[in-house]
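Feature request disguised as a bug report, sorry. It would help if multi-protein outputs had a clear separator. Right now it looks like this:
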Amino acid sequence: MSATSDAYRIEPVTPTVKDYLRLRQQAGLSPFSEEAANRGLAGSIFAVSLMQGEEIVGMGRIIGDGGCFYQVTDIAVLPDHQGKGLGKRIMAALTDYMKANLPATAYVSLIADVPANKLYEQFGFAETAPRSVGMAMTIGSR
């Protein structure tokens, strides 16, 4: 199959735990245990899988409380497929879902790695500093 963007399709499917862990690891995202991934994926509000043929080569998810607060997370594209606008396609699918299904007052956030923040700006996300600052904690590091 060719490496053009036409060789890819977005499907509104949550990745399997195995694919989720593989994509995160190969895309350079922080690792999770199988148990954590199992729990987390079950709580997805919406997810997409980027497919090339029958292989999942990217993903993105929306998590949240279903009313007030949502977070875009797990935007990942395998390294061999990066630089082709595929992250943008994943974000477009998530944004389309949010505009069609989330309450108008929903607060949607994300934590952006640099330089991916430039991608998210294209979809209306803006840095919140200095009014607010993103913070994080890993339970195992306390």
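(second protein starts here, but nothing in the output says so)
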Amino acid sequence: MRRVIGGQGLWQVSSVVDLYNCVSVLTLLSIGAYDLRKIRGDIHLRYGHNGEVFLPLSSQEVISSSLNHL
């Protein structure tokens, strides 16, 4: 964020990293990422659906999405 505010822009790393950096700047929220080489199976980027549940990595707490707050 400091780079963007200072007029320096973002570094270009890769399409995926650039994407979450842009989303972080636009929403002012941090976004985490994982090493793709350690991910098994296919990856799909999509919008979440109302009522969908999410289990964060390294957590036992299930999060139920509610898009009503957007």
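Even a blank line would do. Unrelated, but nice: Helices lie at 2-5, 15-27.
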